[in-house]
Amino acid sequence: MVTENDVMTAPSLEETTVEKAFENIEEEIVLTEKARTEIAKIMAANNIPDTFGLRVGVKGGGCSGLSYSLGFDKEAREGDKQIIKDGVRIFIDPKSLFYLSGTHLDYTDGLNGKGFVFNNPNASKSCGCGSSFGV
After folding, report:
1. ∠ CA 65-69-70 to the nearest 5 degrees?
2. Is 31 in contact with 87 (CB distance < 8 Å)?
3. Which domains does the chain have, with CATH numbers?
4. DSSP letter at 29?
5. pLDDT tens by residue, 45-81
């Protein structure tokens, strides 16, 4: 028999979904060698300590509806998933996690410009500059 206390202590659907999404995220976010090298260069050039992490996120905006964000944070925020990929500490907030699952983060320095490139299988459309996308 289920009591009122049992119902109150059961995880919500949202908590369960977030936990399941976090289970295998280490395998679902890929940093290329070029991206890792560039992250290390940026950290060294700006005297960012190794204890800081790369915050990878998604926010509303851009010509396709959503845009990627990158930055460095001293520590993870409440609710963040923290993973370490080849020595790079990565922080991802739960909302961004759903959009970034399966993403390959690369760095290009070709003739068409240089910068980080998100190869995201969840994106159904993107803009010409590659910094915004839609699902």
Report:
1. 165
2. no
3. 12-130 (2.60.300.12)
4. -
5. 999 999 999 999 988 766 557 888 999 999 999 999 9
- Terminal-residue alpha carbon distance, the chain: 42
* Element at 34 (helix H, strand E): helix 33-45
CA separation for the pair 82, 26 (Å, rounded): 9
How many helices and strands in the chain, by DSSP H and E?
5, 9
Backbone angles phi, psi at 81, to 5 degrees: -95, 130
**What's the one-letter identity of residue 37?**
T
* 44 vs 64: CA distance, rounded Å: 33
pTM over 0.85: no
Who contacts 69 (Cβ-Cβ below 8 Å, separation ≥6)? 55, 56, 57, 58, 59
- Tens of pLDDT, residue by residue over 68-124, are 899 999 999 999 999 888 889 999 998 888 888 888 999 998 777 788 988 888 776
